[in-house]
């Protein structure tokens, strides 16, 4: 699994925090890791972007970013408004493939959800994943509304012949409500893909040492962690 593409059901679902957890877990397993934020929007040139946030939380990863636009919008829109060239899916794929030549694992984080556009031709992260023939991890919210959005994302991936590696819950609450607890059973059912983890709420605010120690406990063995989906479900929804 040299390249893993990380998308989500939308923006602010925890893609960056999950990317950091996957990176920290891989680093702990002795892998070299690169993180590529395909297009970073909504931050100024001097501000840390998502890739830097992953490095802060996870540790010694190579960070890369193809373009940065100031407006907090979809990359295609933000590029147009900035009067700058957009990022094209083939550029994302090329940079990821290059990083994969000297890293054990390359994590590619998209912007927002799967079909958010990078360029005026309608290129998306899904196109980059197809060029790379890379598996895709979907980050999903825990609670009400996630079944529909996650199934839509899974269907789009399948329709494109892409490999849906699994779903990770971006922020698992300390006191999960009925919907969140039921979703542990229903998310794998509606997506046809395994749950590969649940990152505890508040993880992004942990100090980096605590984050790195905890990360393997939030992720399944497929992601080199020790999280057990079945044991978690039984514990959280007795
Ligand atoms: N498990 C978590 N613990 C603590 N904070 C979290 C967690 N998940 C998400 N957050 C917080 O929620 C916000 C959104 O998370 P994050 O930046 O990971 O989303 P994203 O899906 O990467 O969004 P974007 O589309 O902008 O890249 C951030 O402020 C982040 O710190
Ligand atoms: Mg992010």
Automatic annotation (TrEMBL):
Its EC number is 6.3.3.3. Pathway: Cofactor biosynthesis; biotin biosynthesis; biotin from 7,8-diaminononanoate: step 1/2. SUPFAM superfamilies: P-loop containing nucleoside triphosphate hydrolases (SSF52540). It is found in: Cytoplasm. Substrate binds at residue 41. The keyword Cytoplasm applies. One of its GO terms (biological process) is biotin biosynthetic process. Pfam families: AAA_26. The keyword Ligase applies. It catalyses: (7R,8S)-7,8-diammoniononanoate + CO2 + ATP = (4R,5S)-dethiobiotin + ADP + phosphate + 3 H(+). GO terms for molecular function: ATP binding; dethiobiotin synthase activity; magnesium ion binding. Its cofactor is Mg(2+). Its main location: cytoplasm. Keywords: ATP-binding, Biotin biosynthesis, Cytoplasm, Ligase, Magnesium, Metal-binding, Nucleotide-binding. InterPro entries: DTB_synth_BioD, P-loop_NTPase. GO terms for cellular component: cytosol. The active site is at residue 37. Mg(2+) binds at residues 16, 50, 109. Homodimer. Belongs to the dethiobiotin synthetase family. Catalyzes a mechanistically unusual reaction, the ATP-dependent insertion of CO2 between the N7 and N8 nitrogen atoms of 7,8-diaminopelargonic acid (DAPA, also called 7,8-diammoniononanoate) to form a ureido ring. This is ATP-dependent dethiobiotin synthetase BioD. The gene is bioD.
């Amino acid at each position: 699994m040299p390249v893993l593409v990380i998308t989500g059901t939308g923006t602010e679902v925890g893609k960056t925090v999950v990317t950091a957890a996957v990176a920290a877990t891989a680093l702990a397993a002795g892998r070299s890791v690169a993180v590529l934020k395909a297009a970073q929007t909504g931050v100024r040139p001097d501000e840390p972007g998502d890739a830097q946030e992953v490095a802060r939380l996870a540790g010694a990863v190579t960070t890369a970013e193809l373009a940065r636009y100031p407006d907090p919008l979809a990359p295609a829109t933000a590029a147009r408004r900035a009067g700058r060239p957009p990022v094209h899916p083939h550029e994302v794929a090329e940079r990821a493939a290059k990083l994969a030549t000297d890293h054990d694992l390359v994590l590619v984080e998209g912007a927002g959800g799967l079909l958010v556009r990078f360029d005026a031709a309608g290129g998306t992260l899904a196109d980059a994943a197809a060029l790379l023939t890379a598996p895709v991890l979907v980050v999903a919210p825990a609670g009400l509304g996630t079944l529909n959005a996650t199934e839509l994302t899974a269907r789009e991936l399948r329709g494109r012949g892409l490999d849906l590696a699994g779903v990770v819950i971006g922020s698992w609450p300390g006191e999960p409500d009925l919907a969140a607890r039921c979703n542990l059973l229903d998310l794998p059912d509606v997506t046809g893909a395994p749950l590969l983890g649940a990152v505890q709420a508040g993880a992004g605010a942990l100090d980096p040492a605590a984050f790195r120690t905890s990360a393997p406990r939030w992720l399944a063995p497929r992601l080199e962690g020790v999280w057990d989906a079945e044991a978690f479900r039984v514990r959280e929804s007795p």
